[in-house]
Structure formats: structure tokens, C-alpha cells
TrEMBL record:
Pfam families: Ig_3 (PF13927). The lineage of its organism: Eukaryota, Metazoa, Ecdysozoa, Arthropoda, Crustacea. Residues 92-188 form the Ig-like domain. This is Ig-like domain-containing protein. It comes from the Eukaryota. InterPro entries: Ig-like_dom, Ig-like_dom_sf, Ig-like_fold, Ig_sub.
């Protein structure tokens, strides 16, 4: 015969006190939540299998290690630990030209044989994003820097421009996870 859970307790970090409980010793079960931890954002969801603590909306400050302890009627308690990693996308990438002007759509016009320097910048995000330049699905520049404010920069240098770069599309791609789509900003090269 399967044992019956009588209470579910959730703990955050190293805290010895639970921040959430679901007590089945009372008819219909009773939920309790420490308002200082999640406020009204946490709810124990019994409609899923296994029942789970749902937090909505998740905030960056929620990143932590959580423990769930289930006490049973007859058997020993069981504890599970999970680390919640909260991903924060970076800001959309902004491209600037040699003069520092923001480029939207197309850069230039540039002379054949000339040089192009485009700077792609993004800020924020957790974890810190990677920033690469892509052309025709292929990475053409992947060296980026991160400054003390968390701004990520990648410079695209194109020297000795040839006519085959007319209307060539270069995409600056910011990504910091494999769950959401990368943030792309595309610039085409205009030549005279």
C-alpha cells in the first residue's frame, strides 16, 4: 500500500525555516506562504504530476537553491534539492558606425577599396551574453569584450571593400541561453 504525504515544506537557500507549506492533515489541505519571500507569486499546484511549487512571475532575485521536504504518514521524510537559475535576456543589440552614429538598416555608402568598422553593443543579461557577427549563417567575428558596467562590444572590421559586399547583410547576434531566440540586429552594406 502506498504511503500518504501529510505535509510538504519548501526551504530557500540555507534557511532552516520553510517559506511555503502545504498541510494535508487538515481536510482539503491548507497552504501557507511567508509573504516576505514570494508574496502572492508562489502556489503549490496539485494539478500536475508530480505536484509542484509554481512561482509566477519569476524575478532575477529568485535565483537560489531550494529544498522540498515531504513528510509521510508512515515512512521517512524525503528531501529533494533543486537550483533555480533565472535567465535575463540582454538588451537588443545596437550597431554604430565609425563616427559613433547608430546604424539602422544600412551602413554607408562606402567606397570600393575602403574600410568599414561597425561596433555592436548590448548591455545587461544574466548570464552575460556572447556577441558575434554572422553573415549568411556563418560566424565571421566572434571576439567580444565586456566592460566593468556589463556592456558587451564586438567590432566588425571589413578592409579593402570589394563590389561583392554591396548589399551584404551582417547580423550582430546577442545570446545568453539556449532557451530563447537570439537577439539579432542586421545591417546591410551600401556602396558607391
Amino acid at each position: 500500500m502506498a504511503d500518504v504525504a501529510i505535509i510538504v515544506l519548501w526551504y530557500r537557500g540555507a534557511s532552516p525555516a520553510p517559506f511555503y507549506s502545504y498541510d494535508l492533515r487538515q481536510s482539503g489541505g491548507r497552504h501557507w506562504s511567508d509573504e516576505t519571500v514570494f508574496g502572492q507569486r508562489a502556489q503549490f499546484d496539485l494539478r500536475v504530476n508530480p505536484p509542484s511549487l509554481r512561482v509566477h512571475p519569476v524575478r532575477p532575485a529568485d535565483q537560489d537553491t531550494y529544498r522540498c521536504r515531504v513528510d509521510y504518514e508512515r515512512g521517512p521524510s524525503r528531501t529533494s534539492t533543486v537550483h533555480l537559475a533565472v535567465i535575463v535576456p540582454p538588451s537588443p543589440a545596437v550597431v554604430t558606425d565609425e563616427s559613433g552614429s547608430v546604424v539602422e538598416g544600412s551602413a554607408g555608402p562606402y567606397l570600393e577599396g575602403g574600410r568599414v568598422v561597425l561596433t555592436c553593443k548590448t548591455i545587461g543579461g544574466r548570464p552575460s551574453p556572447t556577441l558575434v557577427w554572422v553573415r549568411d549563417g556563418r560566424v565571421v567575428e566572434d571576439s567580444y569584450t565586456v566592460d566593468h558596467r556589463g556592456q558587451v562590444r564586438n567590432l566588425l572590421h571589413l578592409d579593402n571593400l570589394s563590389r561583392d559586399l554591396l548589399d551584404a547583410a551582417f547580423t550582430c547576434r546577442a545570446t545568453n541561453n539556449n532557451i530563447t531566440r537570439p537577439l539579432d540586429t542586421t545591417v546591410t552594406i551600401n556602396m558607391t
